[in-house]
Amino acid sequence: MTAPIINSPRVLQQVTAQFYRYEAALTGNDIEVLDELFWHSACTVRLGAGENLYGIEQIQAFRASRPSANLDRTLHNTVITTYGDDFAVCSTEFTRIGSDKIGRQQQSWVRFPEGWRIVAAQVSLMT
Fold it and tell me: 94 - beta bridge partners?
């Protein structure tokens, strides 16, 4: 097996654009884009700070019922790494105004025929 090219500039640019598109949709509560960027599969997993969601239907239900206020946040230590042409991991820390907690987010992205999609995500808060 040939080792994948790590952080090919072309692939890294594509994933980085999708990561920040997701971030804008998250802080702007653009549910349509959030739903688009998650893989529409029962295999998709999102482990949140207060919920474990298995499958796109649970993820979509969570998004539809999530409060839409106070979503702004500042990202820190964002690391995006691509592995070959079709897989990437995006990791970041975040803070919110009025809170001293540090949040963590990690996403696994896969390129499908319809584009880059999150197949697994994790969000947690450091205590």
Answer: 75, 103
